[in-house]
């Protein structure tokens, strides 16, 4: 008959009288803690569990008015009425670390604890004479590389194509000892600034280790700006391997976007104020629903960490003339954005079409059903260029918006660009990938696409 497995509550809560007028919900003895529940689903459906717990809750709420411990109160009231339906689990399946816990009686006798439960609102700050030991244990687990579980223990490796296996083998031959990426706090904290500039939905993909994901979670939960946003989706891609799979990360963000159009941008750019509304108008005016267009948002950069952000195109042009701003990457990679034709943009009042040129990599607005990024490009080099090249092969019109702009903010350089500059093997590998990509594009769209 047993349908629910629970560990006994390890505090005196359900015994009552913890303070004056303390009146807990009814429970069997000490009651049970619902932090860990074993459910026999087939039997629960057979006894019509949905109806039974509702009837119990409605009856008790007539006198109790509200719950103190949410679902736990309802479970305990139900078990009080139906004690034959509960199976008491051993204490080590739910070692409860609240302020007034009796769990010491469990872990002094049992060495193989299964689940440690921080069941106090204070979490890691509870008053418990052994809390330091458990806190250190918990923090140690947070630092573990979750890929040990995702791959080796459960045997569920990421799907790998023959091409990616060959590429990874080539990359592993390189003499690269340092770690590929670390947690770039300055880029993550850009999120708050982006949210202040862009009020529209955001699909954000983050490449992190398990420990970095926890660090980001704490940052996001403490941020008043991020907590106030209900239209930001966070998608964690867990670190695996030595090289940053930048286009895989971009594709994760793209696949999880729920809007009909997407603005494909990197986290180190700040969009101009009001860009979201401007782009929505442009999408309608340029009939993107029925035409293949990629709307180019001109990119600029500053070398100053403290920037008085321009509030208009006129203000941006003034800062450009004063040398406070520059066209993006004109110092080091002119070809990447030269086809935008910044000279024409200065005086343009209407959108204008530009032709694709080799190595062009603008930031664009496209329909969500656009081609995905080519995931063979990892680390630094050609990850955006290849995407724009495929858009051109599919005959997208590249249209520059006259009153839109974004500004790249300074940050420490990534390890990948250092590898690209210092390692001939890295550059040779990238050259091989470029040749493969050209061949694949030619087979897919014909040689005229190149």
Explain how this protein is built.
The chain is of the alpha/beta class. Helix content is 38%, strand content 14%. A five-stranded mixed sheet has the order 8-14-10-15-13, with no helix packed on it. A four-stranded mixed sheet has the order 9-16-11-12. Strand 4 (95-96), helix 4 and strand 5 (116-117) form a beta-alpha-beta unit. Helix 2 (49-64) crosses helix 3. The radius of gyration is 29 Å and the shape is elongated. The termini are far apart. Residues 152-156 and 174-184 have low confidence and may be disordered.
Present the secondary structure layout:
Blueprint: E1 4-8, E2 32-39, H1 41-46, H2 49-64, H3 71-81, E3 86-88, E4 95-96, H4 104-107, E5 116-117, H5 131-142, H6 147-153, H7 162-172, H8 185-188, H9 190-197, E6 202-208, H10 210-222, H11 224-227, E7 232-238, H12 246-255, E8 261-263, E9 269-271, H13 275-285, E10 293-297, E11 299-301, H14 313-322, E12 326-327, H15 342-347, E13 352-354, E14 363-367, H16 385-393, E15 397-400, E16 406-408, H17 415-422, H18 424-445
Parallel strand pairs: 1-3, 4-5, 6-7, 10-15, 11-16
Antiparallel strand pairs: 1-2, 8-14, 9-16, 10-14, 11-12, 13-15
């Amino acid at each position: 008959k047993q349908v629910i497995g629970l560990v006994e509550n390890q505090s005196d809560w359900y015994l009552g009288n913890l303070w004056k007028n303390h009146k807990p919900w009814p429970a069997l003895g000490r009651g049970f803690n619902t932090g860990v529940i074993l459910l026999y689903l087939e039997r629960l459906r057979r006894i019509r569990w949905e109806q039974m717990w509702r009837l119990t809750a409605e009856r008790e709420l007539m006198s109790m008015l509200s719950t103190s411990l949410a679902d736990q109160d309802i479970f305990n009231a139900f078990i009080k009425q139906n004690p034959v339906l509960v199976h008491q689990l051993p204490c080590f399946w739910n070692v409860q670390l609240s302020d007034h816990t009796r769990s010491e009686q469990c872990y002094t006798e049992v060495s193989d604890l299964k689940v440690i439960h921080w069941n106090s609102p204070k979490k890691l700050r509870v008053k418990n004479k052994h809390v330091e030991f458990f806190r250190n244990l918990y923090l140690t687990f947070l630092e573990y590389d979750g890929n040990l579980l995702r791959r080796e223990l459960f045997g569920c490796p990421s799907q790998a194509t023959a091409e990616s296996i060959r590429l990874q083998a080539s990359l592993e031959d390189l003499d690269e000892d340092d770690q590929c990426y670390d947690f770039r706090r300055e880029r993550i904290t850009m999120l708050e600034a982006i949210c202040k500039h862009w009020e529209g939905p955001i699909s954000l993909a983050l490449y992190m280790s398990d420990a970095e994901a926890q660090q980001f979670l704490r940052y996001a939960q403490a941020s008043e700006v991020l907590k106030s946003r209900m239209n930001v989706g966070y998608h964690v891609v867990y670190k695996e391997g030595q090289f940053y799979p930048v286009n895989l990360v971009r594709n994760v963000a793209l696949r999880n976007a729920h809007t009909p159009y997407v603005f494909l941008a990197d986290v180190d750019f700040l969009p101009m104020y009001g860009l979201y509304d401007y782009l929505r108008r442009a999408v309608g005016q340029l009939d993107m629903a029925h035409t293949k267009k990629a709307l180019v948002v001109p990119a600029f950069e500053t070398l100053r960490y403290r920037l008085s952000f321009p509030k208009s195109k006129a203000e941006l042009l003034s800062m450009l003339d004063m040398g406070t701003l520059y066209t993006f990457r004109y110092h080091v990679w002119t070809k990447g954005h030269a086809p935008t034709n910044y000279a024409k943009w200065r005086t343009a009042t209407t959108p204008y079409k530009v032709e694709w040129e080799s190595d062009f990599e603008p930031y664009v607005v496209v329909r969500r059903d656009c081609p995905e990024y080519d995931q063979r490009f990892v680390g630094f080099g050609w990850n955006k260029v290849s995407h724009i090249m495929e858009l051109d092969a599919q005959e997208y019109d590249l249209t520059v918006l006259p009153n839109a702009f974004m500004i790249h903010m300074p940050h420490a350089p990534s390890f990948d660009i250092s590898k690209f500059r210092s390692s001939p093997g890295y550059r040779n590998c990238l050259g091989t990938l470029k040749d493969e990509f050209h061949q694949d594009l030619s087979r897919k769209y014909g040689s005229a696409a190149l």
